[in-house]
Write a structure and sequence with these properties.
about 210 residues; alpha+beta; six-stranded antiparallel beta sheet; three-stranded antiparallel beta sheet; 2 helices
C-alpha cells in the first residue's frame, strides 16, 4: 500500500450514489482554514449530501440515487472522518424508460490558474440521462444539458462556500512526475468545463466496483 501523503487544511469528500444497484462515486477535495475535526466533518458531510441532492439530482437520470457523503481529513493518516447517510427516498429527476448503461459518463474538467497535470482534475458524473443525448448520435450530449450541469456544479460549490466561508474546492496533487510528494499541494479550482462527448468508467458497470 502506498505511504500516506499528508496535506494541511484539506479534506476529501466522497459522494457515493447508486446506479442500477451499483455503487458509483464522485470525489472532491476541499481546502479550509476551519479546524478539520470530527464535528466539522460530520456537518460538512451532511451539507454536501443536501447540496448534491438539491443541485445535481434534478439534472441526473432517475436511475441514480444519492446514498452517502464521506469526508476524510488529509492532514494525518487515520485522521477524522465525517459521514452522512441518506435515509430518505431520493433519485434523479429525469425519468428515462431505460437509461444509459452504468459506465456511461460525462467528464467535467476542473481547471486552475496553474498549468500542468498536477493542477487540473476531472469529475466523471454518473447518471447521464438518455434523453439528453443528441438525436441520432449516442456519443454526444445536448449543449443545453452541459450548461445546466455546469450551472448546477457552480451553485453546489457556491453554497458549500456559504456554509463555510473559509472553504474552497481544490485540485489535490500528491504526486509529481510519478513520484510521491512530501506534502500534497492543493490548488483552488478557477473554472469548470465540459465537451459534449460521452465518456466511460468501466468500473461503474455491474459487479465491477466503484
Amino acid at each position: 500500500m502506498p505511504a500516506f501523503i499528508p496535506t494541511n487544511n484539506v479534506f476529501v469528500a466522497e459522494i457515493i450514489g447508486s446506479l442500477f444497484g451499483q455503487a458509483v462515486e464522485v470525489t472532491q477535495a476541499f481546502l479550509t482554514s476551519t479546524a478539520i475535526d470530527d464535528t466539522y466533518l460530520d456537518g460538512v458531510a451532511a451539507e454536501i449530501g443536501s447540496q448534491w441532492q438539491g443541485q445535481m439530482l434534478p439534472d441526473m437520470s432517475a436511475q441514480y440515487s444519492f446514498v452517502e457523503a464521506r469526508c476524510t481529513s488529509q492532514e494525518v493518516e487515520n485522521g477524522p472522518v465525517g459521514i452522512y447517510i441518506e435515509t430518505g427516498a431520493n433519485a434523479g429527476a429525469i425519468a428515462d424508460s431505460t437509461g444509459l448503461p452504468g459506465n456511461a459518463t460525462i467528464a467535467i474538467k476542473k481547471g486552475t490558474i496553474k498549468s500542468g497535470k498536477s493542477f487540473r482534475g476531472r469529475m466523471y458524473l454518473p447518471g447521464v440521462p438518455a434523453s439528453k443525448l443528441v438525436s441520432g448520435n449516442a456519443d454526444r450530449v445536448l449543449s443545453a444539458w452541459i450548461t445546466s450541469i455546469l450551472d448546477d456544479l457552480d451553485t453546489f460549490y457556491t453554497n458549500m462556500e456559504i456554509y463555510d466561508a473559509n472553504l474552497l474546492p481544490v485540485v489535490l496533487s500528491k504526486y509529481t512526475g510519478g513520484a510521491p510528494r512530501a506534502n500534497g499541494v492543493a490548488t483552488p479550482i478557477s473554472f469548470l468545463s465540459m465537451n459534449n462527448q460521452v465518456d466511460s468508467q468501466r468500473r461503474r458497470l455491474e459487479g465491477r466496483g466503484v
